[in-house]
Amino acid sequence: KKQYRIAVIPGDGIGKEVMPEGLRVLEAAAKKHGVALHFDHFDFSSWDYYEKHGQMMPDDWKEKIGKHDAIYFGAVGWPAKIPDHVSLWGSLIKFRREFDQYVNLRPVRLMPGVPSPLAGRKPGDIDFWVVRENTEGEYSSVGGRMFPDTDREFVTQQTVMTRTGVDRILKFAFELAQSRPKKHLTSATKSNGISITMPYWDERVEAMAKKYPGVKWDKYHIDILTANFVLHPDWFDVVVGSNLFGDILSDLGPACTGTIGIAPSGNINPEGDFPSVFEPVHGSAPDIAGQGIANPIGAIWSGAMMLEHLGEKEAGKSIVEAIERTLAERTLRTKDLGGNADTTACGKAVAEMV
Amino acid sequence: KKQYRIAVIPGDGIGKEVMPEGLRVLEAAAKKHGVALHFDHFDFSSWDYYEKHGQMMPDDWKEKIGKHDAIYFGAVGWPAKIPDHVSLWGSLIKFRREFDQYVNLRPVRLMPGVPSPLAGRKPGDIDFWVVRENTEGEYSSVGGRMFPDTDREFVTQQTVMTRTGVDRILKFAFELAQSRPKKHLTSATKSNGISITMPYWDERVEAMAKKYPGVKWDKYHIDILTANFVLHPDWFDVVVGSNLFGDILSDLGPACTGTIGIAPSGNINPEGDFPSVFEPVHGSAPDIAGQGIANPIGAIWSGAMMLEHLGEKEAGKSIVEAIERTLAERTLRTKDLGGNADTTACGKAVAEMV
Ligand SMILES: CC(C)[C@H](C(=O)O)[C@@H](O)C(=O)O
Ligand SMILES: CC(C)[C@H](C(=O)O)[C@@H](O)C(=O)O
């Protein structure tokens, strides 16, 4: 029987409410599929912890969670209490950088029971992955300000793309495309306007494509690509983009399927040198926290992604199918999807269907 | 009787087919509203010109068109024949930079007769402007490559934001918001991830907002903002963004209203030190060029924006209304909108309704 140690970090706001449901479903799936999950709980990466300690995480956070097989994360950030650059850069972005989670992976899938904002699209019509570079690119901290507080004031910030960084995300994306029936990869670029880094990105895509002759690939400038997410979401299979472009596409994609509130994500170190983080796309949602009405599907679906990442494909798949069956029943959905279940009732429903 | 000199540059592909219709409608509106338009025609900024002269424009292009009251432009670019960095950077982007057209302005409006890809939205529901910074930001040419062809290879490119550049686009956007009934401005940012330039952008927005107490404003990170274009397009009135963010939003917005093929744009130097360029958003569309089926509405609508920019509000408005009446009739629409009119028939219909 395979055994995995999971670090559980609920974080802030509704993170604390959806995680118990995620754990409930993970336990049900583990039991059914003969997988042993051992959970260690941590209270850091939260406002409570920050209030007590003046920092988001303990100094030895890497020792505490660096040896786990994966990290199961709720939500972080509470702008009214802690500025984003403290809360996000002190936890989530630290994980991405220091655990070298260079892949940010998100499914874009039209699910039953979730009304699509796009006219005439039905479940099955939209089903693709966004693969985002997660460690470099536009999110550098290189740059600065000159002539402050004068009319000549200016700021600069560099986008940095390394061959290592670009090639490894492209490799991941091409392999993912190759593993899917359609074997189709779309690259997000903007080489007609961003004249140095983006042509480099294109160049590396072309070089990598040679190694995957079975994969059909194309590229679109990011402006028209966002338009095509709305106009032709059925065109896509695997979409790969830089840190910024991937960030945009992996919010826009779920929006096109009406599912920002239930979308999952993985921050993945494919080599397994460090643990990967799995978390719902929704944030801590202070406005609805504490009411027991948060939709737990994003956390549950993230748990499924975690199992798949650990190699437990069957267990992961059984959760995704249970989610689909749950969403199809109005009474089992939470309010945001027109149902009347609360967080716990929805979580229990998925756990029972697993 | 006011008199204006317009430089007309049809450019490439369907640019050559839609411009005559744009001119036809401009002439009709000018006649009706007692405006005198004088057109000078130029053949540069096209593949034909490039083939003959090895460059996109004559050396004295600035003398040739720099004194006109406005430039009415068709389309440029034919990737199969000229690389984008030659065709676009040799014309369109040169105009933006050297004529200091620091505002890129595009309406996002759901028009009658144009099916919206968004479920349940009707004409009147979506009506806002995207204001894009058009000269600096992410489209710098500052950067380079190090350690070429080795594993250590990397490229960098700077985003550059100057106080002059940021403040003047914000001023334009706030003034536009103030002139509209809703008086609402939305700023596109990404200060939680892009940690130097974007917080600076936010800082200047806050400073500028103090000068426009009558304008309600808010800001969204670009990722969730693109999502909200799809989920809540009715939230927006004036949206302002950097060169890249504005570029993305001003393709995504028209896509949400189903109108990429008919959207107009202005590249504007508000002070009038240099001529502004008005052009349809669609490109040269080599695939349908020469068939007489191109939709001329983008060019015609751009003509309306040009008249408004010149101060001829009534004449501009009469064209927009004529467009709406034309689009409402299936038989007057072009094929791409389910009609059966060709380019000329559609243009004539608008001209008659002006
Ligand atoms: C052609 C390209 C350089 C241009 C841009 O990105 O500015 C285009 O997308 C536009 O929006 O006018
Ligand atoms: C919180 C923020 C820094 C983050 C990002 O932009 O990476 C978020 O939008 C995400 O996608 O995880």
TrEMBL record, chains A, B:
<protein>
    <recommendedName>
        <fullName>D-malate dehydrogenase [decarboxylating]</fullName>
        <ecNumber>1.1.1.83</ecNumber>
        <ecNumber>1.1.1.93</ecNumber>
        <ecNumber>4.1.1.73</ecNumber>
    </recommendedName>
</protein>
<dbReference type="InterPro" id="IPR019818">
    <property type="entry name" value="IsoCit/isopropylmalate_DH_CS"/>
</dbReference>
<dbReference type="GO" id="GO:0009027">
    <property type="term" value="F:tartrate dehydrogenase activity"/>
</dbReference>
<keyword id="KW-0464">Manganese</keyword>
<dbReference type="GO" id="GO:0000287">
    <property type="term" value="F:magnesium ion binding"/>
</dbReference>
<dbReference type="GO" id="GO:0046553">
    <property type="term" value="F:D-malate dehydrogenase (decarboxylating) (NAD+) activity"/>
</dbReference>
<comment type="pathway">
    <text>Carbohydrate acid metabolism; tartrate degradation; 2-hydroxy-3-oxosuccinate from L-tartrate: step 1/1.</text>
</comment>
<dbReference type="GO" id="GO:0050319">
    <property type="term" value="F:tartrate decarboxylase activity"/>
</dbReference>
<comment type="similarity">
    <text>Belongs to the isocitrate and isopropylmalate dehydrogenases family.</text>
</comment>
<dbReference type="InterPro" id="IPR024084">
    <property type="entry name" value="IsoPropMal-DH-like_dom"/>
</dbReference>
<dbReference type="GO" id="GO:0051287">
    <property type="term" value="F:NAD binding"/>
</dbReference>
<dbReference type="InterPro" id="IPR050501">
    <property type="entry name" value="ICDH/IPMDH"/>
</dbReference>
<comment type="function">
    <text>Has multiple catalytic activities. Apart from catalyzing the oxidation of (+)-tartrate to oxaloglycolate, also converts meso-tartrate to D-glycerate and catalyzes the oxidative decarboxylation of D-malate to pyruvate.</text>
</comment>
<dbReference type="InterPro" id="IPR011829">
    <property type="entry name" value="TTC_DH"/>
</dbReference>
<keyword id="KW-0520">NAD</keyword>
<comment type="pathway">
    <text>Carbohydrate acid metabolism; tartrate degradation; D-glycerate from L-tartrate: step 1/1.</text>
</comment>
<feature type="domain" description="Isopropylmalate dehydrogenase-like">
    <location>
        <begin position="5"/>
        <end position="350"/>
    </location>
</feature>
<keyword id="KW-0479">Metal-binding</keyword>
<keyword id="KW-0560">Oxidoreductase</keyword>
<dbReference type="Pfam" id="PF00180">
    <property type="entry name" value="Iso_dh"/>
</dbReference>
